[in-house]
Write the structure tokens for this entry.
Amino acid sequence: MDLFEAIKSRRSIRRYKTDPVDDKKIETILDAGRWAPSWGNTQCWRFVVVRDAAVKAKIADTLKKIKLPDKEVPNPASGAMNNVPVIIVVCARIGSAGAGHGTPGGKPEYVTDKGDWFMFDVALAVQNMVLAAHAQGLGTVIIGAFDAPQVEKILNVPEGYRAVTLFPLGVPEHEGKAPPRKELSEIVSKDSFGK
Amino acid sequence: MDLFEAIKSRRSIRRYKTDPVDDKKIETILDAGRWAPSWGNTQCWRFVVVRDAAVKAKIADTLKKIKLPDKEVPNPASGAMNNVPVIIVVCARIGSAGAGHGTPGGKPEYVTDKGDWFMFDVALAVQNMVLAAHAQGLGTVIIGAFDAPQVEKILNVPEGYRAVTLFPLGVPEHEGKAPPRKELSEIVSKDSFGK
């Protein structure tokens, strides 16, 4: 699939068929993640491919309800977790991205005011992955609103690593709608912010 | 360009020709960023396209030296900033990505243990942008090691927004080498971390 077609036609998919997902397609997705750039080539990303039904159910239970001013509503991606054949959980090694080469006292010395860049580097890989899924006819929806410490327990994520995001992976049951995007004139300026 | 070819053949480019960059190509890059997914469609990204020579020089001056245990070395991307026709600075609105809909006391109430997801969402857009540049024959290198508060002053970034990353954009003077990637066996596990 053409790059621009992939970027523009990818949608967040919240209902999936129960059709199985081929291992070869998953490998292509993981490989696309691997080729993302990263801070000093630290490649802090780690991917856990979850197919086990019991593990998937436990992970689905960690999706957080979203608080509205007057009530709580289910995470809109909750429906996506039912019966989806695969969930990919993306973890990060902390203390590497964003750090200089010096680690005095065994602690990473971060170079910028953003501290650890694991969120940034993980997302570079995740964007490659969701595009690679879409180009192979598979749907995804990137989920952040889940109980990450609980997922770390479920997957036995060791100290020094964090669960960052996860996405179901399956054959879309619907086409997906594009939520409206801001116009370029609202988000782009020239030589100075807002100009 | 095919998506997988774009993902695998993109390189971080650290030397550029002085050839001008067409506005139409830049618009295609910005548009690719705009089509990234984001937390609750908050689209926190803001792009500043810098062509003004004086502004570019000031930004180039903010690149941080990298500390090694025994000395400081220039940011390896410093060379890329000389004479490059365009620098794109990516800023983020804070307090939106990662937040629920409730903002008691005017403060965002973040849903996860990661707090504000601006780093993640900005990176989703940036990965689309570097792929879109590459597919149009342009090179980039994503830079994090710069003095972001200083860039915020240079570009008059208002309160509530942060400068996150920047990248030079120009015609590559060299092909770029791929730093070695970890094998999938080193970064992928099944149903449990490390298995």
About this structure: Chain A touches chain B through 85 residues (CB under 8 Å). Chain A has one domain: 3-172. The mean pLDDT of chain A is 93. The beta strands of chain A are 45-50, 66-67, 72-73, 86-93, 139-140, 161-170, 188-190.
